Amino acid sequence: MTDPVKARQISGNESLQETPGAPLLIVVPEEAEGQRIDSFLAAQFDDISRSQIRRAIERGDVLVDDQVIKPSFSLRAGQQIQFEPPESLPIEAVPEDIPLDIVYEDGEIIVINKPAGMVTHPGAGVRSGTLANALVHHLSQQAMQMPKRGGSSRPGIVHRLDVGTSGLIVVAKTDRAHLSLAEQFESRTIFKSYIALVYGAVKEDTGRIEASIGRDPRNRVKMSVRPEGDGRPALTIFRISERFADFTLLDIEIKTGRTHQIRVHLAHFRHPVVADITYEGGRINMVKNRSLRTAIEALGRPFLHAARLRLRHPATGEVMDFSVPLPVELQSILALLRTATQ
């Protein structure tokens, strides 16, 4: 176990991911009083499983007030947990016969219209049913193998969409394509455009939200806008597409690809994405139209869609522009809004 004196304490404005591999000193909050330590730590890290945490405790890699404890240890507010996070093991994407909505495909790339509800690649708690599982099967039918770049859990994947976000995602079929696409994303030459319906009447016709994003120190499942230097820079640009009485339809371009970027930025802008239960902050309770509120509550996903993607082909250099329409469930919400405003 690492010397406790060298452990870094986590305060209210710090992120646990800022110093990978470093021992952490976590002060137990009042709301965690009485929780098992393995359950508490599992809730703080969405990329480390509870079984991994339990093994770390049993190895003595977790101390409470400098004492070795058991996974069932009951916490008290104010106690100090010293924790050395284990490495997350990659989960191999095994082939699964899952239908894909293929927008474009050639020998180098494949462009998919991902449905809401599909996870991009296997990870903690998700081992099957992902886009990566479907792609491995799809290429096996062509007697092709996914590229080695990206690893066994996310072969060929250079970017991702949140599980609740639908729309376009490009995947490399060769190592050459993966390298080219990764460089395009790194240099921010790939154009990504989204459609989002947000709560409230946005005043500006166009605007930009530039604010760093990092893991929320109070809820490890969420991201949040962080002070400068305590997160990763992020830039979101928007323009009004359509206005309603209490809602606004936005066209959004992102210049960076941070986790939950659009959802976090728009919530920070006080116009959270409709039906985003993670970041909307209870705004659904302010919807007065009963039929509209019922439809939003039944949506089961944020009103966020990756509608357009423009890139250079990895082999030919040709500029390729792809677009897909809103899914039916999102079109239905807009139809209700348009009827209500007539």
Summarize this structure as a short list of keywords or feature phrases.
342 residues; alpha+beta; nine-stranded mixed β-sheet; five-stranded mixed β-sheet; 16 strands; globular; disordered N terminus
Structure description:
Helices cover 21% and strands 24% of the residues. The protein is α+β, with helices and mostly antiparallel strands and 342 residues long.
Secondary-structure element pattern, one letter each: EEHHEEEEEHEHEEEEEEHHEEH
Structural class, from secondary structure content? alpha+beta
Low-confidence stretches: 1-22
C-alpha Rg (nearest Å): 22 Å
Strand content: 15-25%
Terminal Cα span: 67 Å
| Sheet with most strands | 9 strands, mixed
Global shape? globular
Write down how many β-strands occur, each being a DSSP E stretch of 2 or more residues: 16
Give the averaged pLDDT, no decimals. Answer: 85
Number of helices: 7
State the share of residues found in helices, binned by percent: 10-25%
Summarize the structure.
This protein is of the alpha+beta class. The protein has 7 helices and 16 strands. Helix 1 (37-44) crosses helix 2 and helix 6 runs antiparallel to helix 7 (328-340).
Fold blueprint:
Blueprint: E1 8-9, E2 24-27, H1 37-44, H2 50-59, E3 62-64, E4 67-68, E5 80-83, E6 102-105, E7 109-114, H3 131-140, E8 166-172, H4 175-186, E9 191-199, E10 206-210, E11 213-215, E12 223-225, E13 235-243, E14 247-254, H5 261-268, H6 290-299, E15 304-312, E16 319-323, H7 328-340
Helix pairs in contact: 1-2, 6-7
